[in-house]
Amino acid sequence: MSKLTQKVINLLIFSSISSSFWAIYRVVFNLFLRDLGYTNQFIGRMTSFEMLGAAILGILIGILGDRIGKKKMIIISSISFGILLLIRSTFPYKNILLILGFLNGGFMTSRRLLLDSYLMDVTDSSTRGAAFGYNFAIFMASGVLGNFVGGFMGEYLGLGLTLYITGICYAISPILLRKLPESVRDKRVTLQKVLDFSQYNKEEKYILKYYLLRTAAISFGAGLFVNFGNIIYKDLFNMSPSLIGISLSIAQFGAAAGSALSPVLGKRFGPFKYTFILNGIVIPLIICLGFIRNPFVFVVIYALRFTFTNMTNPVETSSVLSALPKNRVTSIYSLRNAANFLTRSLAAFIFGIVSVLPSGYTYLFLISSVFYTLALIFMFKLFVPLRKNGVLHQLYSNNS
């Protein structure tokens, strides 16, 4: 594979810093709300509002990224996210949390959406697989640091102060992009064009269809528990914030290591086999989570599930986006983002209802396993044209 360009390296550096602060926010905020006395039902409802914001506003932010520039939108969304986090931490009242949660969801998802589409702009087939693999590895590795540091900061500095620090640091993190040129802008991009599927040929429509179906299925299954890992550890095992941070860091570390190796593993075993087998193993692991109540075994199984699911993400994403029109990548990613967060919004709402039932977490993991199975079926169909049209061989020199 070709050497990564300086543009890609600059984007990866920004990704590592902003991802660390994002991970600190993720591990601390729900615990902050629980410390204030909010129930799982309310936290689930608030998270549902965030996911709705991510789905709806994510499309609009993606369009603006194409129209005025992805770098500019990353700066705007980062500052906005930081300001909203400071307001929500200072005035954690129900109506404020719900209303600003909707806005917060849009800004929190935009960084990833814009960053991934920007990577498509600055890479070609010789570097794209590696760039996506490294970026996802950095995203996960930063989560290791963020979860670990966030857990200890929350326990020893206080959850509120940790959120203030996180908001300020996240808001100023785009300073790392100062040397990066703006992306190519296209003022012709509109919402109508994003939703216009007539511009795709038959194969592209097929790929997009199963990409969105797979996204919706796996997002619903993951949304039942992934956003609430800190609460689950608290409810099942009464872990302290620092232990929760360590437990989540173990999972992030595995995913980071696997993602960094994904270009090599995808080439060695074949991108389809590599992705399909690991996603298949995830299903029995999720079922096990529904019944295991030994904290050490639970942490290990949770980490393996998280690792196997996420380490295949760079291979699948780079393969799918490379098979679709490059000038519509941001729009496509916006639609994928909408499918992801709309289903996660529903799943978050269901979490708040089911988690408080007797054996509620068992039901959540069993329901999740059904949707992961559906996602595996959709993935099989998704890769059919990718194996035929040469995209996999172009990216990974392996069509299997």
UniProtKB/TrEMBL annotation:
Origin superkingdom: Bacteria
According to the record, the segments passing through the membrane are 9-28, 48-66, 97-119, 131-150, 156-177, 211-233, 276-304, 338-357, 363-384
Q: Does the keyword Transmembrane helix apply?
A: yes
Decide whether keyword Transmembrane helix is in the record: yes
One of the entry's Gene Ontology molecular-function terms is:
transmembrane transporter activity
> Which SUPFAM superfamilies does the record cross-reference, listed alphabetically?
MFS general substrate transporter
Coiled-coil stretches noted in the UniProt entry, renumbered to this chain:
none
Instruction: List the Pfam families.
Output: MFS_1 (PF07690)
Q: Which UniProt keywords apply?
A: Membrane, Transmembrane, Transmembrane helix
Q: Do you know which InterPro entries this protein is assigned to?
A: MFS, MFS_dom, MFS_trans_sf
Give residue ranges for domain Major facilitator superfamily (MFS) profile: 1-387
PANTHER family (alphabetical): TRANSPORTER, PUTATIVE (AFU_ORTHOLOGUE AFUA_3G04000)-RELATED
Protein name, per record: Major facilitator superfamily MFS_1
Source organism per UniProt: Petrotoga mobilis (strain DSM 10674 / SJ95)
